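User: What would this chain look like folded?
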Amino acid sequence: MCGINAIYAFHPSAQPVDEEELLRTRECMRLRGPDAAGQWFSDDRRVALAHRRLSIIDVADRANQPMLGREGDLAIVFNGEIYNYRELRDELREDFDTTSDTEVLLRLYRREGAAMLPKLRGMFAFCIWDERTRTMFLARDPYGIKPLYYANDGTTVRVASQVKALIAGGAVSTARDPAGIAGFLLRGSVPEPFTMYWSIRAVPAGSWMTITPAGASQPVPYFSLAAVLRDAVHSRSHSQRERQEIIRDAVAESVRYHLVSDVPVGAFLSSGRDSSTVVALAAETGTLMRTVTLRFEEYFGTRKDEAPLAEVVARQYGTQHATWTLTGQRFRDELPNALDAMDQPSIDGLNSYFVCKAASELGWKVALSGTGGDELFGGYSTFRIIPRLVRSLGLFRHLPTAARAFERGYSKVMPKSHAKFSPKTAHTLKYAHSYEGAYLMKRGLFLPEELPDVVGDETAEEGLKRLGILDLIRETITPDPGSAFARVASLESALFMRNQLLRDIDWASMAHSLEVRVPLVDAFLLRKVAPAVFTSLRRDGKELLAHSPKTPLPEAILTRRKTGFTLPINDWLEREHREVPHSFGMRPWALFLYQQSLAT
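Assistant: Here's the prediction, encoded as structure tokens.
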């Protein structure tokens, strides 16, 4: 795990790479990689790579980056882990100078180029300079677990693991992007490929792109979540016994791969099924596991207190367990540091920040998380609600006049701003007749009609036009996954999980020099379990997942109602919220973050 950055002055009129700019960008990411730092320049100084390293696999200096190929014509900076690097190494049948996954990537690229990407099991974002063709090759893992951003001013392309790192270099425009602003206010996180800045874009998940002397290519997808789900939906069905075996074997295999490390691996443990299953399966491998639970003072003695049940799980599977308590005062004291670490605004990132802080204070370098179970196995209420909305309100797709009449009537009856009534309800008939619209209604923070009151008419109009939020959502279910259940899985995985949960885990963990791995977010796992999950009419994927461990989870875990992993933020920030006009739900917190982002 690390921070990477690269600069390619591809146009003849561009100036050679400024070393000071490169180092400013790299050092902005020092917490991502406190163990080593390095940089490399091409002979003509028109290409530069830089790296900050958190040593996990082959911790020796020989595996530091940037790493050059033996022939001297390839160089790489790499962020992430390739969990199946040993098998890939054996397939190459070559001599290696390290035992790192980085060197395997470099050798595999020399042999196969972009064709290697589907073979990589892991989380990754990397940049390879190929002197043979004067090409910079960028790639990102299928789910987008690891971020990768670039800025292209027409003569020079700059690449980094963080938006803030590109800004820190000093050569990238800081003009705000209305589309990024609109996206954050609609969704609570900035939807890819947009950022809060005009000049910076994300390399899309599951894509690669090149920069040559002719400029930057368009991203080329090599993985489609919707297509994998479509193929699964139309595959043969399985018996209940087969479904259980498929899920058990595939999840256990994924957990084993995610334990590949040359340093100890711990795990976040809540009282939920997903994290408990990951811990149980990790313990089955014989690995002595360390676990940590984040506890909130305000939740003591309530059903939201996860610590008591987490301790039961830890005892059952013999982990070395710790409970870390977060108080309101500790939250307020640490909040400036958390906001400074937040790469892009997100309403859901502080829970990740504090559990990563707990792990870091325990001396950990690697932790497993149960993130992804709800998206893959159907754990959210959206799997029921969204199809129901589309079925029941589909007629209104053809009755826009009725939808407008409902908006007017609702607005006259209900207060414009009230903490208990969602302002979105007035627009239900306008949006909820399609999957993209229903998803925006259910997961949206504000709706497009409300943005002018928040950011002004001009910013709202321009931002909404460039963003195209309904088209952006629709792209995640194209091609059609083939069933209502699979459509919601694709929506949740490609939008909520990718743009919010995974991105939050990245910046929050890296702020504490911690690598977080997500065994339930894995393209190899998806391909294996999807036929067992999405061909059956039984929506029991979460139950089958929870019954995967050979030593069953405690009954209290299996019967506990889902509560979600949340912080009592509204209570802790009540002073900041009192004068905020949009008081519903997480809106006050979102507006607080929006103002903070504009001030930096």
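The longest helix spans residues 484-510. If you want, I can go into more detail on any region.
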